[in-house]
Amino acid sequence: MNPSDMITLLQIAKSKIDKGATGQEIEKFIIDIHGQELMDKMKSDIEEYLSLKNKSREQNQPYWMLICNPKLWGDGSEEYEVNELLHNLDTHEELWKINAHTNMELQMKIGHKGIIKVSEDSRSKEARKDENGDIVPLLESGIYGLFEIVEYENGSCIDEDYEEFFVNIQMFDNFYKDGINIPKAKSRELLGENVYNSIPSRKIDKALYENVVKYIESVEKLAIAQ
Known about the structure:
This protein is α+β, with helices and mostly antiparallel strands. It contains eight helices and seven strands. Helix content is about 40%, strand content about 25%. Strands 1, 2, 3, 4, 5, 6 and 7 form a seven-stranded mixed sheet that branches. The longest helix is centred in the N-terminal third of the chain and has 25 residues.
């Protein structure tokens, strides 16, 4: 293949990458048509472009804030069970309901990360009474952990009439279980007043997500030092 044709083929490969093709898919595409020898010649250019695209996607990747209302957990659980459910949220995948009026479901992708914020706990004493008659404590409003979307990219519809969707998440850092959930005042400081006071779940800037990560890392280091 002459240099001009190789440049054209590389542009085709880049176009496919721009549309979401993986390195393996590009390699198969070139080998199936032109053979391994040509793929070997183009490999470094393709890998360089893939690396640039991955860095760009990571920089532009949205982050999310999902909100937990202790009174409305949403899976049919009793209200007194919410504390335990939240404590064990990192042990399994969890379906999380989102409201589609923000168009969040159209943007949420597998691998995206975010924070879980608990809103004001309005459960009554009676609702917080467990099977033994003990009253579980109110949850303090604040940030309780970090999660990653693991299933149902773009959301899976629950109810088209009410425009309700869900995604499947996995909490990978459970502050609540570790006893270091971030209380309301500090959460406000880290996220800013407007974001913290948001009622629906929403997209947040990468910088705000990183504020939370850095704060937790500092708290963990302090705990180790002590």
